[in-house]
UniProtKB/TrEMBL annotation:
A Gene Ontology cellular-component term: Cul4-RING E3 ubiquitin ligase complex
Cited Pfam families: DCAF15_WD40 (PF14939)
Highest taxon listed in the record's lineage: Eukaryota
Example of a GO biological process term: protein ubiquitination
InterPro entries, alphabetized: DCAF15, DCAF15_WD40
Annotated ranges, domain DDB1- and CUL4-associated factor 15 WD40 repeat-containing: 1-129
Protein name: DDB1- and CUL4-associated factor 15 WD40 repeat-containing domain-containing protein
UniProt organism field: Meganyctiphanes norvegica
Amino acid sequence: HVFLGFTKCGQFLLSYTHSCDTDDHTLQMIHRYRLHWWVFVPYAPLRKVAEVMLFGDQDLQESIYDNIFISVCQWPRDLSKILVYGCSLVEGSDGSMSQTRRVYLTITAVPSLDNCSACCQVATSYEDE
């Protein structure tokens, strides 16, 4: 887990995980990123309550072939969602870093701590990991 920070409300710690697979057609590495939401209570163990696949379903869209820099931000007056931003420089054919950037965005809702019973079952299933 890579630590991203806390939400403005201070209730959640955010982290992401990164995994790689090989594309069978191009033999290139495909990078996948997942955002993890953890309830933060001082002096208590973190408890994961949600996770989100970042930057869409790469199986249906253009795959991410580069390792990317990820940051997160929230709107000043709307704490109900966050924006996760990823970018990378694209390597030129001569091996130098070109000025072209690939940018990836995900906007996702902040999980509710007052979940329905079905949502609570999903959140408690993360404790099995």
